[in-house]
Amino acid sequence: MKKNKNSRREFIKKSALGAAGLTIAGMGMSPKSYAGIMGANDRLNVAIVGLGRRLGAYIPPISDPKSNVRLLYLCDVMQSQMTNAAKRFGEVLDYRPKLEEDFFKVIDDKDVDAVFLATPDHWHAPGTWLANAAGKHVYVEKPCSHNPYEGELLVKSRDRYGKVIQMGNQQRSSIETIEIIKEIHNGAIGKPYMAKAFYSNGRGRVVNPTKAAPPEGLNWELWQGPAPRKAYEHNTWDYNWHWYGWDYGTAETGNNAVHELDVARWALQVSFPEAVMVNSGKYHWPDDGWTMYDTMDATFRFPGNKIIQWDGKSRNSHKTYGAGRGTIIYGTEGSVWVDRGGYKLFDRNGSLIREKQSGSNEGGTQLGGGGDMSTLHAQNFFEAIRGKEELRSPIDEGATSTLLGHLANISSRTGESLICDPKNGHITNSFKAMELWERTYEKGWEPKF
What is the pLDDT of residue 41? Predict the structure, then answer.
């Protein structure tokens, strides 16, 4: 523990981040060999921080010779995660990345150009702006922030440090989704006015958290990072932090709704809502350890009377129109069904005009193992760093879509419908709700611009 605290202090000092908080002031060659020598001046050195369920999504784009990247670090606060990641990358790389527990040592290495950040939610924004301050580009998984304020700070970090920040809402890189969204914008369904986004999963009973010693190999101090310190509770670190209160997670809305809400917002060409109305509750296993809602119905109203609806069911896997997740866009002359597997275009009477399926292995409610969209999204990140492509999910877009999830959570937690400023999404009708715009940080982790 002492080692990590010292390395953090040393990093802050060297990076001039301030003392009163984290101030953001060929032929015959194998593919492995080919990747090792091609375009050295164009090569990017990358690190992965957080080696859990998203690990499989990074293996194809990083090991692909066309990406022209070299993996310098595998970083995680759990030793077993690093061991597993080293084994999996060892099957596709002919060199060994360094294994490092300490995030600060990774971003302090001047050879690192970019970082993939796949940590728990509470680390996403602080990890991103710290990496930016150290001169690194960042691919941050959704949700890009733990609360609305952090989303605003991420845009400021991008502007201050001039680094690329891509959020991992991978459907922005789906060839089929890009195609049909362009058609919608060109009038394929007339004027789009409403979108319905949905997600259904069959998550089961969650054990009740009880105080326990951290599991062997886990650096609990570093895992907590910017969150206020508390004793370890059984079964928290791996995944159940999503459902054990608001210190670390953002519930299902942050965990999954961000994907479909982003597609809906993209299709309707809207930014910030002017009103948010939510009904939510915990309906399954009332005596288990799940402390969040497990069911939510949310409506977002935007300028121009455009509407996005969210139907989220964490623990009831009954499908909507035969699918576990997706988005339906309604227009004056037709409608579109779109998910990770493709799209269907209908006329106003509901007759199918055209259907296109991608064959991607990223369909359904899971997105852990990666696939076509994840590979394309990461490669777009690489090319944007090189100045050869525009980002498909720049952080201002990612933060705006993430904000919808935060606003739904705030409405759920306060029991209030929200009136928002359509210029920035700020809540204008409730001081109680605006108190949740930010979070409390562990001393020394407070961001100050």
Answer: 75
Question: In this predicted model, what pLDDT tens digit does every residue of 99-148 receive, in sequence order?
Answer: 999 999 999 999 999 999 999 999 999 999 999 999 999 999 999 999 99
Other CB atoms closer than 10 Å to residue 431's CB: what's the count? 7
The per-residue pLDDT for range 182-224, each reduced to its tens digit, is 999 999 999 999 999 999 999 999 999 999 999 999 999 999 9
Phi, psi of 379 (to 5 degrees): -70, -30
- Environment class of 433 (CB within 10 Å of its CB; exposed 0-12, middle 13-18, buried 19+): buried
Q: What pairs with residue 196 in β-bridges?
A: 309, 328
Q: Are 179 and 30 part of one and the same domain?
A: no
384 lies in some domain: no
Q: Which two tokens stand for residue 5?
A: 């605290």
**DSSP structural state of residue 242:** G
pLDDT at 18 over 50: no
Q: Which two tokens stand for residue 261?
A: 């809400």
Answer yes or no: are the C-beta atoms of 313 and 320 closer than 8 Å: no
Question: In this structure, are 176 and 147 located in the same domain?
Answer: no
CATH code, domain carrying 12: 3.40.50.720
Structural domain of 101: 2-170
* 157 lies in the same domain as 249: no
Q: In whole angstroms, what is the distance from residue 418 CA to residue 104 CA?
A: 39
- Number of domains, the chain: 2
Mind listing the pLDDT tens digit for each residue in 30-81? 444 444 444 567 999 999 999 999 999 999 999 999 999 999 999 999 999 9
Question: Which pLDDT belongs to residue 293?
Answer: 98
Lay out the sheet containing 137-141: strands in order across. 98-100, 69-75, 44-49, 114-117, 137-141, 165-168
- H/E run at residue 1: none
Q: For residues 194 and 346, is the Cβ–Cβ distance under 8 A?
A: no
Neighbours of 307 (CB within 10 A): 19
With cut-offs at 50, 70 and 90, classify the pLDDT of residue 17: very low
**pLDDT at residue 26 tops 90:** no
Q: For residues 168-180, b (16+ Cβ closer than 10 Å) or e, as one string?
A: bbbbbbbebbeeb
- Number of Cβ atoms within 10 Å of the Cβ of 20: 8
CATH number of 277's domain: 3.30.360.10
Give a yes or no: residue 378 inside a domain.
no
Examine the domain organization and report whether 112 and 186 are in the same domain.
Answer: no
Q: How many helices (H) and strands (E) does the chain have?
A: 14, 17
Q: Which of 177, 197, 175, 204 is nearest to 321 (CA)?
A: 197
The answer to whether residues 187 and 332 touch, using CB atoms and an 8 Å cutoff, is: no
Give the integer Cα–Cα distance in Å for 339 and 232: 38
